[in-house]
């Protein structure tokens, strides 16, 4: 068929990071655009819109509790941002986190061939970007917990003499140490 696992995979994976309906539609549209079954870009758009709507609804139905927690995080971030402060928290490792999202006023803009950079005189005098504080907090908090887990796992593996390598949420070791690492992973998650 034309709708395979890959068609909606990115949308499902980014749902925990707060993908919007428009973002989901664009992700799906990108997967569908080269399918020969579609005659026009309009057909691709309509199909992507339909699949995005269904995918987001199914994710909401399947992960009701996770979505409730995500909504609570977003609501909490919104309340904090309304005070004019950025959202802050401390990871279980003791690492302080501060979301740097500000609405830059009185900026100088420099365009480079790579990107556009905005400079502000004093960051401390810039108001927080309430919308970005709100939408970024759930995924940023989850990333901070994931990275804490990885650090705890890495330290314990070193203590146990196990070779450790990892990227994001992928953990590697020598094949002979997989069972030991598997046990360490679970123990450190509980920490």
From TrEMBL:
SUPFAM superfamilies: DNA/RNA polymerases. The keyword Metal-binding does not apply. The keyword Transcription applies. GO terms for molecular function: DNA binding; DNA-directed RNA polymerase activity. Residues 1-191 form the DNA-directed RNA polymerase C-terminal domain. It comes from the Eukaryota. Coiled coil: none annotated. Keywords: DNA-directed RNA polymerase, Nucleotidyltransferase, Transcription, Transferase. Belongs to the phage and mitochondrial RNA polymerase family. PANTHER family: DNA-DIRECTED RNA POLYMERASE, MITOCHONDRIAL. This is DNA-directed RNA polymerase.
């Amino acid at each position: 068929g034309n709708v395979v696992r890959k068609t909606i995979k990115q949308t499902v994976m980014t749902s925990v990071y707060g993908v919007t309906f428009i973002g989901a539609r664009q992700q799906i549209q990108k997967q569908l655009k080269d399918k020969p079954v579609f005659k026009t870009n309009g057909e691709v758009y309509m199909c992507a819109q339909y699949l995005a709507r269904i995918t987001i609804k199914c994710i909401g139905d399947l992960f009701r509790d996770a979505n409730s927690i995500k909504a609570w995080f977003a609501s909490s971030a919104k309340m904090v941002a309304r005070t004019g402060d950025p959202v802050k928290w401390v990871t279980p490792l003791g690492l302080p986190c501060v979301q740097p999202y500000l609405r830059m006023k009185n900026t100088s803009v420099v365009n480079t061939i790579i990107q556009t950079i905005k400079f502000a005189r004093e960051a401390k005098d810039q108001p927080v970007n309430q919308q970005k504080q709100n939408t970024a907090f759930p995924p940023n908090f989850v990333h901070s917990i994931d990275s804490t887990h990885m650090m705890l796992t890495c330290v314990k593996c070193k203590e146990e003499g196990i070779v450790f390598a990892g990227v994001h949420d992928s953990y590697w070791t020598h094949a002979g140490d997989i069972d030991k690492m598997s046990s360490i992973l679970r123990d450190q998650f509980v920490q």
